[in-house]
Amino acid sequence: MDLEKQPQQPVAPAEPAPAPRPAYADPEGSLRASDADRDRIADILRDALADGRIDAEEHSDRIDSVYRAKTVGELEPLVRDLPAARTAGAPAPTPLYGPGDDVEGPADNLVAVFSSTTRKGRWRVGRKTNAFSLFGSIEIDLTEAIFTQRLTTINATSIFGNVEVRVPENISLRGSGTGIFGNFEVVTLEGADPQAPLVVVNGYAVFGNVEAKPKRGKWITDLQARVQDKLRKHLD
């Protein structure tokens, strides 16, 4: 008796072996970010803002994340949707700010309630300043201040009060905020020196005023000398 011939089942083609994963030195992005890494990302964001790819509010949010990032893996997503200003293999510029400047300290708080508060003269600017004015007045004068980090953020709240920020003419100034029956005004500046400090003013004014602008005739004339001197002291 003849055996019925069984139909041959098609043999599935063998799946190609997965390509070997590139041997990156830091595949998970866990490498600690340096000041040069942060400055590289900040420069890309600055170019994107100038080109109109992102607005001032988004730039402020991203730049704040840049200088809070601890690893390279936290930095790259911030510019993934933007054209890179430099190729990955290009050397980053030598940082002008000291290795210890990425340590975030406590915020500087300025409060004026039915009173006035002034911060001016030669003083060391912290990474973050919170200014709150209620039926009061706050003046923050940065024209003679010592900048020891690239980014300085000022969060200003004015309720039936006034907050004024004055900066040198040769730094970068950004801002994002709202005036509710009041005035919120930040005069945008772009420093000619790519290593110039960046001041970002955020907040809102309710029946009050928040204003940030350059003070005419005030310049940081020895920016390079100040930072290089700080670097030498750190290395010593």
How would you characterize the overall build of this protein?
The chain has 236 residues and is α/β, with parallel strands linked by helices. 19% of the residues lie in helices and 29% in strands. Helix 1 (35-51) runs antiparallel to helix 2. Residues 19-28, 85-96 and 98-103 have low confidence and may be disordered.
Write a brief structural summary.
This protein has four helices and twelve strands, in the order αααββββββββββββα. By secondary structure, the protein is an alpha/beta fold.
| Element string (H = helix, E = strand) | HHHEEEEEEEEEEEEH
Number of helices: 4
The largest β sheet comes out as: 5 strands, parallel
Structural class: alpha/beta
| Head-to-tail CA distance between termini | 99 Å
Sheet with most strands: strand arrangement: 1-4-7-11-9
The proportion of residues in beta strands is: 25-35%
Indicate the mean pLDDT.
Answer: 77
Helix amount, in percent? 10-25%
The 3D shape can be described as globular
